[in-house]
């Protein structure tokens, strides 16, 4: 029993759920069934919160490794990480239990001082990479690259004030490129991803998708 | 090594380019240039659409951006709220980004003129963080009040007057997705527009703007504000220039630097390529 | 309330972390690693808190208010933790299975209209119009879409079963493949150029914050330079040692 | 200045999109189609049924031996040459496939990346190249180890597999990115292959690989990252090409069969577009038919 549940269980759950939504979305079903489908959606959203909890536990477990083995050049960082994480957890959970949530002052201080600037900066590093990539990558090696570079330059000029000063037409031209050729260029990718979703659904139904396998 | 290869070598030193970039942005931030800004048709379309909304419009807004994207998305969000304010909007805010609650508090703090005139629970409500899944968006669309029993401040949603008029996707005049990622954008299309035909409006970072264009072109979305440049244009349209307009001068500076590097890259590349071809022929 | 000292302290930490994380672009160093680990720690603590809060508001509170069925997702959610208990780790797969099943259920049913039919419908454009710009725009759009769709076909394409003679049909296929590639280049050029706006915006945001606390920034820059110099020297030493 | 703006406003009106303002649903719900299909969803039902039935038939036929050939994909073909070059230079091949949870919306991309990895490790075994795989997907650790070990074993060189060459890093984006970046530079990789749902780190890797002078082959179905790969890398697998490459790599007939079913979906789309345009010629609008 337990082995059958183990092997077929998750796959059966996925199959039943897909079929249920297939029917309730497409066919006129009685109102209680419709309501139940809305219930299922809410349940799935609640379940998704738990994945985040597990993610945090995984991070702690991962960093306990270097800390335990005193891995040179790493254990100090892992130690600092776990210490700050635990402080953050204590502050955060006590904030939630006290009813103030994330607005609990010490916790708010922690994320405003560390999280907000770090998050913003870590993405801002990318500006350097895109700048140096522009120097080497935007070279006209062939006809395709020529088109890419010309369009890129037009869009750059249409996005900034300097472009508008040089030639006001850059703005409507950039707008046109975005609204028509670019929309058309990404349309096949969107159609493809839509078809991909449908086929993923079918493969899951047939038990051939990764979630259905043992 | 020929002189042109030496030039290439100098230009390839990444650290020089990085320092130049920081210097250009820093200098312009300290000495604004007030370069005029042209307004794109797409921005005007959004402005006109919001302008034509009836009195007391009902909106659903997903604050899906993190501090990094905030520089781009917050000005657009504030401009939208300022344009809506005279109409007496009813807004249900929520966020599918774990940092969303921080960003919402910052949005409130940075637009005191808007939020001081809206009454919590009656004119607007914040549902807090809900996980980033397609089922979540569908749940919000099927009835936000039932899904989230209490707001993050501890009040029960069941008693809030706003949910009597704005609870399900069909109640809203427009659903706004302010996003740094394509996921919520795609799920808005699939779970809010497709089943309920509720008009949706995108406010996205410039990175994902182009890839979202097909949904705007197919009229599945009523419009899109993409990136800091369009946020600045939006600020100009509502006649309240803010941080996006202020940033656009520095944008110009950085762009010009990058464009110069692109041009130099090609000026260096072609002679080198021709030379290496010649070299191969003679050898 | 926190003592006012914390406000200044917070600004200093913020400025220091900004500079240290930036230093990564120039040279990986110890202060960058420290900043990165602090970031991950607070981020993890933050998301845990926010999820915990969410579980209470959408799971436990409704149960308290009488919506008893909400206990089901709470139980299914607890399955996730089974993965830490070797023997019962298989139970953990029911959590994701439930989430994936519902996710696929709602996406498979809405994708045909939302992602395929609506896009197809929007491409049914009149190829002629009194206004030449509209007509040309429409022709261009239709060609690019058909070209892209052709490009993404893998099985049912001419000449797939062995080298075949060029037929008019296979030539047409080649032409549309080309149109598809060039169309995508327009899209990618635009995307690249737009990305610059976002990235520069991030930089502007960071520098604006640093300008707000100049002393802290200067101190942080000096420390970062020292750390980078140290990392550089260490690297040279090991390089010499290896040689 | 104002006049210029006015001119532009007029001009941009020319280019702006016309919006339908009447998209609000009408209050009275229309009755079900044929008495049981929800209004507006008939076309969805038809398309889903066609694809499900065809997909099922194709997968069935594939299991019984029908071949679904796949067109050549330049980026996939290039893997051979790129690994060859790594052997010539005596430097390693690096393969990475992004970070995240396996059981998520990105599962198809992760699985495609693992599929291509089987091909890469087979070739690495045949040519005797050292392969280093880095990734941030914890659930994939056993699969990656098994695939790499098998690649060397099949070529009769099991001793070439070293435990440390299958490197799970972390699920944290920038920690993963920093580690991969450092690895590319330290090991001076000759061939850098990147396939998977990369986010912002795509450009970091591509730039670093270019600095290390590696031949780079990259692919992702995250459309926002494709431009960086197109610009910086030597070969790119654009969006669905990645899935096709995986089918080629594993030789799994059912994967090829479902790609065939997707092709049918695209043929239907092309046919509908051409039909729709043709109907417009006869001043008929087929558009509304797609939303009955």
Write up this protein.
The complex is a heterotetramer of chains A (214), B (283), C (243) and D (292). Chain A has helices at residues 2-26, 31-68, 75-97, 105-124, 126-137, 143-159, 161-166, 170-205. Chain A is mostly helical and 214 residues long. The radius of gyration of chain A is 26 Å and the shape is extended. The model of chain A has no long low-confidence stretch (mean pLDDT 87). Chain C is mainly α and 243 residues long. The mean pLDDT of chain C is 86. Chain D is α/β, with parallel strands linked by helices. In chain D, strands 3-2-1-4-5-6 form a 6-stranded parallel β-sheet, with helices on both faces. The interface between A and C is large, with 119 and 116 residues.
Topology:
The complex is a heterotetramer of chains A (214), B (283), C (243) and D (292).
Chain A: H1 2-26, H2 31-68, H3 75-97, H4 105-124, H5 126-137, H6 143-159, H7 161-166, H8 170-205
Helix pairs in contact in A: 2-3, 3-4, 6-8
Chain B: H1 3-12, H2 14-30, H3 41-51, E1 58-64, H4 67-84, E2 90-95, H5 100-110, H6 112-115, E3 124-129, H7 134-142, H8 144-147, H9 162-165, E4 174-179, H10 182-196, E5 200-204, H11 209-217, E6 221-226, H12 227-237, H13 243-282
Parallel strand pairs in B: 1-2, 1-4, 2-3, 4-5, 5-6
Chain D: H1 2-15, H2 42-63, H3 74-89, E1 93-99, H4 107-127, E2 131-136, H5 141-154, E3 166-168, H6 173-186, E4 191-195, H7 201-211, E5 215-220, H8 226-232, E6 235-238, H9 241-250, H10 253-281
Parallel strand pairs in D: 1-2, 1-4, 2-3, 4-5, 5-6
Helix pairs in contact in D: 2-10, 3-4, 4-5, 4-9, 6-7, 9-10
